[in-house]
Amino acid sequence: MSGVAGKYENQSQLLFVSSESGYETIGNQNHFRVNLNSMPFKNEDNTILRMSLKQFSLPKNFSNINKSNNSIRMFVKTFASQGITVPNLDTMVTIPEGDYVSHESLTDAFGKAIVAKLIEKVTGFTTSNLTAAAVTLVYRNKVVNSGIEQPLLGSEYNDFKLHIEITCSTGSFAWGQPLKFQCLNVPTSTVYNLDNGSGALGIVVSTTQLFNDSYILLGGKRIEEFQGDTTTPVYNITTPQTSFSSKAKNGATNKMVIASWYPMNSALHTNEYIYISSHQVHSQASSSLENVSNEHAHTFITSNILGKALRHINFDYSVSFRIDEPSPYFSNITSSFVNEIEIELRDHRGRPLSYPNVGNLPIGLSSNDYVAHTGDAQTKDGNTACDLTLLMEKFSNSNGVDSLRGLPEAPQIPNNNFQSNFSIPTRFCAN
User: Between residues 15 and 202, which one has the greater pLDDT?
Assistant: First the structure.
């Protein structure tokens, strides 16, 4: 057995990494390179390098509701009622970024965002005649136990389905056409445009709006095909794909009822994991995890993912993404020479983490009371640094190439001390 114990010699080294500094090559605390300087790792003909992710920590200094999950396409075909003409519309509704404390508050924010967009686009809609109300999503009779809302009565329950009513109070106004919505989740690098209302394509849909997780958040139907062009705008399509039920309320046609078919996400966020990638790593992953341009498919593609960090709520109620020992994540490195390690943090769609736009005003402030930001993005000079520990191991084969094949099978030596006297009569045997 001496050949087994001496087959490999192990050389290991821990690398303690912090992204809290300027990295000029890439220049981002979520995407950076660490130069090994005078201590590179070398692979020989008979060695294997292995990189393991032993520890990782990143504070969640971005909003739960952000540009990766807060955009919904809204369109409507023109109609007129009570002197108000609603034109052909094809636009994006954006829920304000932030951390929402309840499904009701998120639903309320979505309803107000719809109203704000309609007031912006339709002459005659104002803050005094157009309102939105979150109708359900809270227990009508509730009690709070340990911070959790529970029904006070046994007959009360919550299905967590979205329900909003948009009301116009002008005279006998009636919704002649339904507002329609699409939660876009189109995995493509193609550029698409929204119709500007005149049959000509205008506003470009951004990558984050096009490949968005709003359907997860709001319980909408996922739309994986972009519909509408200059020939047939989306509002002229007879049966366009839609993410929600929407129609004028029976018996009260001044109310537009918007409701989800599926429950809203139980968690008020869509980031359960942060994925840690390295360009030195060779792995495989589902196509939707690696790149936004990959179609959803039950296939694996080449990946650089080294590991993923789970979302944790800490004892002080702060939130971070962490990996603590023991970690299962490792990758063998085939490069002959490793003089730098590149690390990149992405979400579950292969997108960069969605930190707030630096131009967003703090809640409750107007631009008159706020000095505009003129510096770099948060990932450059803000509080987005991560901390991780890597283990680099070098395994050498000291017994030659053939020893990697393992030990030969044990020889079969007959033992005359163990012989059977059991026999089967010939008449019971097949010819």
Answer: 15
CA pair distance 357, 206, nearest whole angstrom: 14
Encode burial over 40-67: b for 16+ CB neighbours within 10 A, e otherwise. Answer: ebebeeebbbebbbbbbbbbbbbbbbbb
Instruction: Write the DSSP string, 232-272.
Output: S-GGG-SS---SEEEEEETTEEEEEEEEEEEEPPSSS-S-S
pLDDT at 20: 84
For residue range 319-328, what is the model confidence (pLDDT) as tens digits?
999 998 788 8
Q: Retrieve residue 213's tokens.
A: 């997780």
Q: Each residue of 352-385: pLDDT tens digit?
A: 999 988 888 888 888 899 888 877 788 888 899 9
- Domain locations along the chain: 8-63+271-355+378-397, 71-263
Distance in angstroms (rounded) separating the CA atoms of residues 19 and 25: 13
As a three-state string, the secondary structure of 314-382 is CCCCCEEEEECCCCCCEEEECCCEECEEEEEEECCCCCECCCCCCCCCCCCCCHHHCCCCCCCCHHHHC
pTM of the model: 0.83
Q: Which residues contact 176 (CB under 8 A, 6 or more apart)?
A: 79, 80, 81, 86
326 prior amide bond cis, ω within 30: yes
What length is written for the chain? 431
Q: Yes or no: say if 168 and 254 are a contact pair by the CB < 8 Å rule.
A: yes
- How deeply is 183 buried, as exposed, middle or buried, from its count of CB atoms within 10 A (0-12, 13-18, 19+)? buried
DSSP sequence for 109-149: HHHHHHHHHHHHHSTT--TTTEEEEE-SSS-SSEEEETTEE
Contacts of 386 (CB under 8 A, 6+ apart): 18, 19, 29, 30, 56, 57, 58, 343, 345
Q: What's the rounded Cα separation, in Å, for the pair 220 and 242? A: 9
Distance CA 224, CA 383 (A): 34
Owner of token pair 């020893």 = 403
Nearest CA to 110 out of 227, 268, 266 is that of 268
Which residue type sits at 161? Answer: K
> Between 2.40.10, 3.90.1570, 3.30.70, 2.60.120, what CATH number should domain 8-63+271-355+378-397 receive?
2.60.120
Going by DSSP bridges, is the β-strand pair 41-42/79-81 parallel, antiparallel, or unpaired? unpaired
Ramachandran angles phi, psi of 163, nearest 5°: -150, 110
